């Protein structure tokens, strides 16, 4: 076990930020009992897979032509402590989709976010991540609402995780 979050899958909200439990939300995708029906669903399940260290799922849902040699072992070396996901927009055509999101994390005691417009294509009935356009985001102010959607101010919430 590493330092990634553990959860009670039947009672805890899914890491991807929906109001559903993990069992009702991303678990069916992770276990292969369901396929992600939209690019946003896939993107959310990929975020949850990062949080829960399901690296095999991340490789499986990344289009092989865009993987650039990334392996499960490399992903497992990440030391990110994930704080929350915010999906800003998602669009879907028949076999192409885009999802813009912010995924906040702490790494080496620094707060940062992946702010990205991700692209997805559908192959044989499965949505796959291809690549993302990274953007810069502003860090929250101490009195701003916390980025983890707790409803608290940043200074009273995730700021306390920083040393
Ligand atoms: Zn979820
Ligand atoms: Zn927080």
What does this structure look like?
This protein has four helices and four strands, in the order H-H-H-H-E-E-E-E. It is α+β, with helices and mostly antiparallel strands and 163 residues long. It has one domain: Roll (Nuclear Transport Factor 2, Chain: A), CATH 3.10.450. A four-stranded antiparallel beta sheet has the order 1-2-3-4, covered by helices on one side. The longest helix is centred in the N-terminal third of the chain and has 13 residues, at 39-51. It is globular, with a radius of gyration of 16 Å. The mean pLDDT is 93. The structure holds zinc ion (ZN) (2 copies). The site of one zinc ion has 7 residues, from helix 2.
Order of helices and strands: HHHHEEEE
Bound molecules: zinc ion
Task: Provide the spatial order of strands within the biggest beta sheet.
Answer: 1-2-3-4
**pLDDT average, as an integer?**
93
Helix residue percentage: 10-25%
Number of helices: 4
Protein name: YchJ family protein
TL;DR?
By secondary structure, this protein is α+β, with helices and mostly antiparallel strands. The chain is 18% helix and 29% strand. The structure holds zinc ion (ZN) (2 copies).
Keywords:
YchJ-like_M, 163 residues, 29% strand, globular, four-stranded antiparallel beta sheet, 4 strands, Nuclear Transport Factor 2, Chain: A, binds zinc ion
Show the helix and strand layout.
Layout: H1 27-31, H2 39-51, H3 55-60, H4 72-76, E1 81-92, E2 96-107, E3 110-123, E4 126-135
Antiparallel strand pairs: 1-2, 2-3, 3-4
The protein binds zinc ion (2 copies).
Protein name: YchJ family protein
Domain YchJ-like middle NTF2-like: 38-132
Organism: Shewanella livingstonensis
């Amino acid at each position: 076990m590493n330092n990634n979050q553990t959860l009670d899958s039947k009672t805890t909200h899914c890491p991807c930020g929906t109001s559903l439990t993990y069992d009702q939300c991303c678990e069916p995708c992770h276990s292969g009992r369901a396929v992600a029906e939209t690019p946003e669903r896939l993107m959310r399940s990929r975020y949850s897979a990062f949080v829960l260290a399901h690296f095999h799922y991340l490789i499986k849902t990344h289009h092989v032509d865009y993987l650039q040699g990334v392996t499960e072992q490399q992903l497992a070396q990440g030391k990110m402590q994930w704080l929350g996901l915010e999906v800003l927009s998602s669009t879907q055509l028949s076999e192409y989709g885009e999802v813009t999101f912010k995924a906040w994390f702490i790494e080496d005691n620094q707060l940062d976010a992946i702010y990205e417009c991700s692209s997805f294509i559908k192959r044989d009935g499965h949505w796959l991540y291809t690549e993302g356009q990274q953007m810069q985001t502003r860090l929250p102010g101490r009195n701003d609402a916390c980025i983890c959607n707790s409803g608290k101010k940043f200074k009273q919430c995730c700021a306390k995780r920083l040393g």
